[in-house]
Structures are given as structure tokens and as C-alpha cells.
Amino acid sequence: MEINLISDTVTKPSKEMLEFMMSSNVGDDVFKDDPTVNELEDLIATKFGMESALFFPSGTMANQTAIKIHTQPGDQLICDKYAHVYNYEGGGVSFNSGVSCKLLDGNRGMFTNEQVISAINPPDFYHSPKTSLVCAENTTNKGGGACWDIGELKKIQQTCKENNLYYHLDGARIWNAIVQTNTNPSQYGKIFDSISVCLSKGLGCPVGSVLLGSIEFINKAIKVRKLLGGGMRQAGYLAACGIYALKNNIERLNEDHIKAKEIESILKKSNFISQVEKVETNILIFQIEKNIKTDVFLNKMSNQNIKLISMGDNKLRLVTHKDYTNQMHEKFLDIISNLKF
Ligand SMILES: *Cc1c(COP(=O)(O)O)cnc(C)c1O
Questions:
Q1: How would you classify residue 46: left for phi > 0, otherwise alpha for psi between -120 and 50, otherwise beta?
Q2: Which CATH architecture has domain 15-248?
Q3: pTM score, two decimals?
């Protein structure tokens, strides 16, 4: 039995999801003629209380599209030093939009309103790049699945309004934040100009993300998606998985969170671990003792058929998910409880 904790993207569609997928009605989505894609887009837009939505093949493309629309070449966006848009989108911010990032030294991928205020370049000082966009991420990926305080997000919204900045949420794992903090999608929809959400993470779909915003914004997004080569034809088969997941796989995220917390409590007691970051959702980041090489640790794990990933600096990450079963969980807890170096 392989236990794959590399990411919550490793899940495979369940039998029920596949059946639902096979029974869906499809059409050519490039002509906006796929009823299932249209249904998914309407469903998510309604959930978030936003005007419109657009289905994307990846979260990266959804974020990059939002950044392209909200900025002009030479502009600067503000984000955390851990942000996915800065670290893990292949430099797309500069490649696609010709934009630089002002990085904030936040806490677990989250920053404060004060930090945003002090990072805005004065608009009349023509020597510096024009600040045009703030990007937040919830939950934070490199920050270990931390959830934002919605009050702070609102304060930043006010700052954006006062300074004519757009405000984008990379909500790849917003579902985890919603379940964990007892918030609802429409609360986030009221705060941001645009939101990207992933279906292929904790929700267990094989492919897909959705970008949300105003009608005007989504009209621009469909053009940028075309430019990036993201138009898909009978994509309803993929969108159907999203419809299925929204109904069946949101509440269950709590099980992933509980499992991650149980792993946390065992790792905290382990003598080969120097630090475990506080677990809030399904991501757990921990640091092994300096005298243990990361490769040695990972090899020891892989000998037991367990997969994790290294984040550099003796840090390792594991992510719980739908296909990490109770049986795997028991076995994993047993293995790490008895691990010796
Ligand atoms: C996974 C992820 C994305 C998008 O990733 P894709 O692999 O392109 O779908 C964006 N932001 C965050 C925070 C993520 O974790």
C-alpha cells in the first residue's frame, strides 16, 4: 500500500464522480456551448455571490489571467514572499504581464494591512513602478495551510479602494479555509475583485479551476484564456467532476484536517523533529533535526512506501487528502511513532 502525501492533487476521481462525469451533457465550450461547463460556472459564481465565472484548465492559468487583466507592463503587484504567484508559477508574472512583485515579509504567507500600506509606491513618483494589484492567498500553500482572518482581508480591501488597487485572491484551497473557519464563499466574494479556486486540490477533481469576477472582468478573461491556449472543447466532462465535488466533497475536508492534526500531535513528540508548524487545515510543514539529512529521511520513508516532499532548509511537507484513507492513516501514525534515527 503506497501512502502518497506529496499533495492533495494526487487524488483520483471516485467511481461515483466518474459515473456522474460520464452521464453529463457536453458541447463546444469555446463557443460557450457546453451546458455542463456553463452550469458549473453559474453554480460557483452564485456560491460566491459574484457576477460571473470562467472554467480554466489550471489554477496557474486562472491566476495569471487575473494578473494580466489587473495590471499593465511595468506595474508592480504586492504579495507575500511565500505567494504561489511569485514562487510556483514559473515566473509567469513577468513572462505574461511584464510585472514585478513587491514581496511582503508576512507570517506563514499572510500579511497585514499596515504592511500593504507601506508597500504601495507613491503614484505621483514616476521613478518607481506603479502599484496596481494586491494578491492574497487562502489557505496559504508554502505557509502551511494557514487561514486568513477575514477582518484583515477586509481592512486590506479598504486600503485597495483608497489607493485604486485591484485585489485578487488565490483561493486554490479556499474550500479548506471555508470549512475550517466556518465562513462562507459569499463573504470572500464581497471582498475581492477576482478569485481563483481549484477543483483539483482537496475537492478531488482530476482537472480544473474557476476564475470569478464581474461580467466585465470575465469578458476580458475569456480573451486572455484564449491567448494562453486555455480554450477547451467538450470540457463538460471535467466540469461535471466539479459539480459533483461541490455537492459531495466540501464538508469531508474536515476529515483531512483532523488527520493532519493527529499527525501533528505525534510529530511534536518525535525526537528527530525540531519544529512542527501549527496545523490549521490539511497541510503540515515540519523541520527535521539538523544532523539528519533530508535525503536520508525521505529514503527511510520511501522504503516504507510513504511519499512526502522537501521544501528546502530541512523542511518537509505533507498534505492529507480524500484518497489518504483511515487505514493508511493508522499505518502512517504507527510508522512515525516508531521511527528511530
Ligand atoms: C495549486 C495551487 C495553484 C494552482 O496550481 P495548478 O497546479 O496550476 O492548478 C495556485 N495557487 C496555490 C496556492 C496552489 O496551491
A1: alpha
A2: 3-Layer(aba) Sandwich (3.40)
A3: 0.97
